[in-house]
Specification:
The chain has 262 residues and is an alpha/beta fold. The chain is built from twelve helices and seven strands. The strands form two sheets. Strands 2-3-1-4-5 form a five-stranded parallel sheet, with helices on both faces. The mean pLDDT is 91.
Amino acid sequence: MRPLFLFSLARSGSSIAAYAGGSPWRLPVADEILGPWDRTGPPYHYPSSQARLVEDFKAAGHTLTPEVVSAARQVLREIGTRHAEGGAGAFGARGVVIFKWPHLRPAPDAWREAFPEGSAAYLIRNPLHRLNSLIARGWTGSFGPKFDLERFVQFAKWWTQQPHRLAYDTLSRDPGAFFSALWTAWGLAHGAGELAQAAAYTRTRYHGDSGRTSDMQAGPVMSERRFVLPREAVSLYLEHPFARGFMEEMGWPVRPEDYGIT
């Protein structure tokens, strides 16, 4: 069993990237199996060992202890095996499971040490677009006094150090380039047929909440066309030296009016 990691922050497009990225081969997806949720029910139907893993990870202070890693490997094997036995994918032939983890911890070095056989890609998104999505959904429980700025800065610094880096912008602008880069990071051989299948997935399905999908609507996603950002939040991000410099390097807008502030 070899995990194909996709690291990001929440609301960065990791769900559509992971599920669409595995769709040509119908690969299994382990969607945030370390918590904080019991995902043994719909729509995931993960094995009962996943619920125990959540508790083990929490008890370990959200660190990858040898016991947590061993339990996680077992959950990954069970997810892959069930997927193949259900006729939904070729886990047995490929021996891989896509592991989506849109959280800040553990740090990249800890993941590499725990799963040296894994392959990883790191995905980032315009921080004010993802912040807008979080606020619109009411997912603000983890915010500090600076909204989600500090979390973004830490991830962005990690992102710059990784060999396989992806940006959400590319997914909407050039899905072929996006998935080709993702599959190269994962070591998956691919051609025009696989690229067409993944692109078709992104045109027809919208992942509003991890594995829960709906029909994709035409035009830009809601978080990029209807803004609910407070003026204070926009100012914090655009006046932060690292965040603004990073946004400029990425070609992301740095004018308040681009985020609904007039």
